[in-house]
Specification:
The longest helix has 19 residues, at 809-827. It contains 20 helices and 44 strands. A seven-stranded mixed beta sheet has the order 29-33-34-40-39-38-37, with helices on both faces. Strands 3, 4, 5, 6, 11 and 12 form a six-stranded antiparallel beta sheet that branches. A five-stranded mixed beta sheet has the order 14-17-20-21-22. It is α+β, with helices and mostly antiparallel strands and 832 residues long. It has six domains: 2-39 and 165-196, Phenylalanyl-tRNA Synthetase, Chain B, domain 1; 46-159, OB fold (Dihydrolipoamide Acetyltransferase, E2P); 214-408, Phenylalanyl-trna Synthetase, Chain B, domain 3 (Phenylalanyl-tRNA Synthetase, Chain B, domain 3, 3-Layer(bba) Sandwich); 416-487, Phenylalanyl-tRNA Synthetase, Chain B, domain 1 (2-Layer Sandwich), CATH 3.30.56; 504-606 and 615-726, Bira Bifunctional Protein, Domain 2 (BirA Bifunctional Protein, domain 2); 744-831, Alpha-Beta Plaits, CATH 3.30.70.
Amino acid sequence: MRVPLSWLADHVASVPSDVDAVADAFVRVGLEVEEIHGTPDVTGPLTVGRVAEIEELTGFKKPIRYCQVEFGPGPDGTPVRRGIVCGARNFAVGDLIVAALPGAVLPGPFPIAARKTYDHVSDGMIASAKELGLGADHSGILVLPPGSAEPGDDALPVLGLDDPVIELAITPDRGYCFAVRGIARELAASLDEDYTDPAARVEVPEEKADSWPVRIDDPVGCPRYVARRVSGVDASAPTPWWMQRRLLAAGMRPISLTVDVTNFVMLDLGQPLHAFDATRLQGEIVVRRAAKGEKLRTLDDVERTLDPDDLVITDDSGPIALAGVMGGASTEIPESAEGTVDVVIEAAHFQPTSIARSARRHKLPSEASKRFERAVDPQLPPIAAERAARLLAEYGGGTVEPGRTDVGAAPVLPPVRMALDLPDRTAGVTYDRGVTVQRLTQVGCTVELETGADGRGVVVATPPSWRPDLDSPADLVEEVLRLEGYETIPSTLPAAPAGRGLTPAQVRTRAVSRTLAEAGFVEVEPFPFVGDAMWDALGLDAGDVRRRTVKVLNPLDADRPRLTTTLLPGLLETLVRNKARGFDDLALFQIGQVVLPHAQQVPMPDPGVTGRPSDAEIAMIEAALPAQPRHVGAVLAGNREPLGWWGRGRQAGWADAIEAGRLVGAVAGVELQVTKAALAPWHPGRCAALRVGEWVVGHAGELHPKVVEALGLPPRTCAMELDLDAIPLQDRRPAPRVSPYPPVTVDVALVTADDVPAAEVASALTAGGGDLLEDVRLFDVYTGDQVGEGNRSLAYSLRFRAADRTLTNEEANAARDAAIAVAAERCGAVLR
């Protein structure tokens, strides 16, 4: 939210001229100052001029104009003219413009000098709002309204470039500060200055008749709707310069009188407004939920298919606006309209969550939705509508028609009772007498004092209509402490209690993270949200348990409204994003919780906040919470071993994903068994189950080609995911035994059927080799005529070693034969 100091001065008795002092005052009451826009760095002659002649230059790649601009009378009384080349098309002869003459320096810095261009000498530059540091609009030059200045005037005071602007980052819980009204109130409280509410300056006359028929079919989504009609508004009337200047300072581009008036009132009071063309309205205005399949063409000229959850404004023709988000094109007041127009002003109060869902669902954030979804003062609609109607009548020559439609009612906030000394006890500070009442009054509360049953003072505070968040004593305490200044609260660090440090599970998690990073993986933290489209892309069956998810009531993204049951969606989206940014060789991992809901919903209790929940309530809460095991996942694409002078490199494959899982198991203190498996989204023939005993704790391998295609992944992308909590914690890890005696290495080649997994053969060799077998490593696979069709040869290196002696060849050969015998029994292996 951007606000110039002059606008704040309209509502605060005394505003410091030092913009840094104002910024410090905002920080003291908890508002974050994002940037201070001081006076733009403009030097030299910046002058108001009037366009006297325009010559259209032809023969160039783009339209160019050569303009004769008058800058007031010279010494002899005749107008001073300068020829200036300009490419903008949004001005005509007679318009007032701002010209930077030779010798001026615009923000950048951008020095201006006379120069020859397009076969003419341009004696200066006609400037746009962006070039002057007034905003981001660069679509055309800045045209001043008639009467705002005279040719030859110094443009600096006309433009208000001597008025600093403060930009504040408004947090979602401070929605009332999305208006100068709320920001000025905070500044006045911080400076202990008198504050004048701009809403109190608007006199709202009593009106018995309606101005337009309105019906609310959904009072939950729209508790209140106000309509005010202004007829005969001059469609071509210019917006007054003082209003344009404030809109520009706030970061908005002036468009037309009706749009500018509604935007100005919204910025000043905080109530979003919408103006309908009364001649294009058909019948009664109805506020309701959209019907399935209904469509609306919004003001951005996009036809949108509405959701039954969308709150819409309709007339007899159907939807004419997406409530609280954006108006419809069918009732828009054209910017280039001629003659007069009749305007119906809408000022409504909408349910914040409903507006937030619609804005995110349609990916249509707007200045209106940004305010409605953070709650708007429900008492403002008649005040804002009256203010806008009078401005249109004053500057557009319109007539405010008798009657005001005011359907519904503003919700009433209940009073909050709080012990008078609760702020003192909470902060550990004894505040001056009357501070609590003073600060709550500055916030806008109506405060009464009572005596409690224990004889102590009690504050009964009725929150103002713009602060629905003040609903408990803790909220009132926060307001008192915030306005008094958090720096006044003493900071005492409590003594750290003696403890055992990290839990075994935390130690294991850190060890897994460190080990994967050492193995060349990069840790990422994707969002834990997913949509149904992802399950389809992963090829999960309709009955797959991973599709049963927990829905988020107020999702950040309407396309991802659920908590994920697996880490793969976030990891794969991150891989695609990095691939699009030029990274070809990727190895990513994540350690995070997934959410696994119960098969049947368990009711969640709602304990009070006045005391600690009972043991029974805590047990019910824990039973109702979904399981949230900690998983570790990894994805690989591109080369696992990079290309270099040493060779061609090696592409990551299913074996690398399996090895990542085995590495996690080794760090966790267990040896994972690898068996053949088939589970989406992995390739059926290149998927392995990772087991601890008989329990499957994860899967790894190469993703299915259809999944790769659906998600736009690199070819042969591989993935691994393990349930880390399913791996038992090892309380005791014996130290490795190091033998000083030499090993005996024996190579064996075994012929098996080609559908027998190599891991099963290795497991059989390990079981048969006994205590002397130290390591089994597969080093060659052969298929061909020598082993017969349907068979393959697996060559293993067996390393034998004894802890207390040097093995003899006879002992090693006996252990080898025992290992081969078990492999033959379990896997049908034959020594080659």
